[in-house]
Amino acid sequence: MIAALALVVLAFAPRSPAQQAGPTEFQVEAAYLYHFGDFVTWPSSAAAANLKEFPICILGRDPFGSTLDDIVKGSAIEGAPIRARRVTAAKDATSCRIVFLSSSEARHVESDLSDLRGSPVLTVSDIPDFDLRGGMIQFVLIDRRVRFEINLSTAQKAGLKLSSQLLKVAVAVRSVRNPKE
After folding, report:
1. pLDDT one-digit tens code per residue, 62-87
2. How far apart are alpha carbons 140 and 7 in whole angstroms?
3. Is there a contact between 35 and 8 (Cβ–Cβ < 8 Å)?
4. Cβ(54)–Cβ(77) under 8 Å?
5. CB 130 within 8 A of CB 138
6. Structural domains in the chain, sorted by start
7. Range name among 17-26, 49-58, 60-69, 70-79 with the lowest pLDDT average
8. DSSP alpha helices (H): ranges in the chain?
9. Does the pLDDT at position 142 exceed 60?
10. What residues contact 176, with CB distance under 8 A and at least 6 apart?
11. Contact 139/126 with Cβ under 8 angstroms?
């Protein structure tokens, strides 16, 4: 499984100007969202609630277009087909397994995370300081490459177990409790 995530990193590494243009930041982020599902164990209650599908949701303005839909098409995790869904409110995302909070949610990130608190949902965003504000995984750009940081405390509090393989690939793993808890 670490190989799958490493392939995402390598496949989307920047290319020299003489080579073809590589994938966009959002294409890389969509690929990560898809692969994160393989490196997280959800509580059995969440697995039972979502037997029919494995929803990856986007909260706010969708930066991926059809990219995420194309990546997940025909794929499954734990035998459940992966579905990309768009939601307009955090309360509508509590049945999702992974929720990407779009940058359009930056002003509402604390209230969105509060609405999701207590739900076994992996929260991901590229909003600055997302992991320090109570989010679980934050995308960051380092040398024009998409990487991610993890707030392990927040994930554990939601009952999620993150694979050691995922933790090894992260550029930072923190144990920061949300100050509003």
Report:
1. 999 999 999 999 999 988 999 999 99
2. 18
3. yes
4. yes
5. yes
6. 2-9+23-174 (3.40.50.2300)
7. 17-26
8. 2-11, 25-36, 44-49, 67-72, 109-116, 152-157, 164-169
9. yes
10. 131, 132, 151, 153, 154
11. yes
